[in-house]
Structure to design on (143 residues):
């Protein structure tokens, strides 16, 4: 099957929310986020990666992938964070992960691990980031 990446449009938001809901991912704050979606050749969402812009930084969120995607597809989706970073002229992008295997993959893509107390204060002003800081076993990464 063929997959393509594209920037989501406003009219895609409802479909992205449904996709995230099916995966059990919170959709709180989706209205203030920008997304890249991976679609099948039939126009169905197979993956998405969202980003909340906070000052000149971004918080990656809602990385959801279909079980049909292989590791190469997931890497392509994660690499698309660079497109978001470029489009919004961001200095840094932050990501919170709860699996070491994901953190290791992100390190290969240029992210580095940081401690919660190294997060800038403007990032902690985000409701989502503020919630993530208190979740056990969450690691923070920055690029």
């Amino acid at each position: 099957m063929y997959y393509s990446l594209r920037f989501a449009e406003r009219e895609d938001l409802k479909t992205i929310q449904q996709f995230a809901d099916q995966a059990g991912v919170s959709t709180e704050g989706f209205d203030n986020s920008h997304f890249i979606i991976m679609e099948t050749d039939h126009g169905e969402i197979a993956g998405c990666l969202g980003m909340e812009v906070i000052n000149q930084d971004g918080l990656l969120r809602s990385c959801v992938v279909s079980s049909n995607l292989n590791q190469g597809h997931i890497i392509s989706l994660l690499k698309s964070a660079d497109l978001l970073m470029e489009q919004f002229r961001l200095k840094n992008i932050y990501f919170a992960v709860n699996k070491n295997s994901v953190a290791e993959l992100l390190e290969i893509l240029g992210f580095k691990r940081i401690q919660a107390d190294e997060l800038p204060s403007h990032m902690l002003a985000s409701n989502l980031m503020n919630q993530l800081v208190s979740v056990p076993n969450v690691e923070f990464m920055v690029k």
